[in-house]
Structure formats: structure tokens, C-alpha cells
Amino acid sequence: MRHRITIFTFVVLMIAVAAYGQSPLGHLGLSGCLSLPVGDFGKNSGDNGGLAKTGFGLCADFFCPIASSGVVWVTSGSALYNSLDISTFEEEFGDDDVDIDGGHWLNVPVMTGLGVVGKVAPQLELYTMFQFGIDFVKGPDIKITAPEGMVKFSTGSATAYGFSIGGGMIINKRFNIGIRYYSFGEPEFNFEISGTGMSPIYQNAKQSISIVTVTAGIYF
Question: How far is CA 137 from the centre of its chain?
Fold first, then answer.
């Protein structure tokens, strides 16, 4: 099933790229963003907490008009970096001799879908969009080092499927400010626990991933 979804998404992306090639009116946007974890992804307690902190990222969008009424096809790619909240580990291993390296989450969503752009003033346009696609996720690696030895929690990579919805404004056909919500369900990750004097332990676990981005950038 996952392979079928991947192939379907790839085909849709290729159709979108072909459409762009036939339209001289497309606009490329590049933005920096805040990456705000929401729901379980941002919790630092409980079995489902993702421990993700507010982070940052880079986003690229290509808007291709497909109707004179303001309907556009939008394909987007982002790289979202969220460091890990290690306060829970610091409370549990609260010792000056213990060093904790928390690592980070890296989400790379590739999305495509439809949007609507409308002019509300001579130099101001508002837009909204709905997209679906794939998120390539790399989980954090946590390393705890103490005089007695070292323990490392290594998280593998996963592929998630989901959607995004958002909107914003384009000022003077050049500057963009927007907000977007991403939801990628609960992809399953492989974990490895290793350390001094112990055999590696392998486990699987699911983690809910939802992110809100606040973007600001420029359109070409």
C-alpha cells in the first residue's frame, strides 16, 4: 500500500512539473520560517511526547495559474529543523557529571495541491491552499555520557504521508507572509539503544508529527 501511495504521489508531482513547463506565469517563492511543533510532537512528557522544540526552516513554493479565476497549482518543498527538549532527561539524570546531547528532528515535506489567489487591494493579494504529499523524517539521536559510561538512543528515518493547509498574503507581488499547518499522522520509527557494557536493543515505535510554520520571504 505504501509503495502505491508513493507512486501515485510521484505521478501527481510529475504532472504538476509538466504543467509548470507550459505556463510562463508561474512564480517561485523562497521563505524562511519558524517551525512550531503542535500536539504530541511538541510534548515533553508522556509516552507519545516528541520532545520537539520551536525550530526553523527553509521553504520553497511554486505557484502555477491554472484558471483565470485565481485557481493555482502549488508545489512546495521544505526543510524543517526542530531541536530536542532535553529538560526531561536533565531532571532524571540531574548531575553535573552527566552530559546530554539531545539531537534534533528533521522533516523534509514535499507537497502538491490547489490554491486560490485573490487581489484585495492594488498591492495586496491573499491566498489559501490545500496540499498533500510525503514527509521524509529523520529522528533525533540522544547521547547520555557519565563517568560510569555512555548510553545512546538512535532513531532511524521514516516516510510519512499527510496534508497541509494554509494561507497568507503577497505584498506588491514580491513579499510573502504566510502560515501553514502540516499533519503527517504517526509514522513508525526504528530505535536502537546501545551503550557501555550492553548489547544493542532494537524497538519500534510510532510518533505523531504535526507542525505549524510561519513564513516570510520573497517571490520571483
Answer: 8
Which residue, chain included where needed, has cell 484558471? 67
Domain regions of the chain by residue span: 2-219
Strand order in the sheet with 99-101: 99-101, 141-146, 149-155, 188-195, 198-206
The residues with which 57 forms a beta bridge, in sequence order, are: 33, 80
Q: How wide is the angle at C-alpha 207 spanned by C-alphas 206 and 212, nearest 5°? A: 155
Retrieve residue 183's grid coordinates.
499533519
User: Which CATH class name applies to 2-219?
Assistant: mainly beta
Dist CA 125 CA 122 (whole Å): 8
pLDDT tens-digit map of 119-136: 888 999 999 999 999 999
Residue 33, strand partner residues = 57, 215
On whether the CB atoms of residues 89 and 102 are closer than 8 A, the answer is yes
Q: Are 132 and 105 in contact (CB under 8 A)?
A: no
Residue 179 grid coordinates: 502560515
Phi first, then psi, for residue 17 (nearest 5°) are -60, -40
Distances from the Cα of 217 to the Cα of 33, 120, 152, 160, 197, angstroms: 8, 20, 38, 27, 50
Which of the residue ranges 45-49, 176-180, 187-191, 200-204 would you say has the lowest mean pLDDT? 45-49
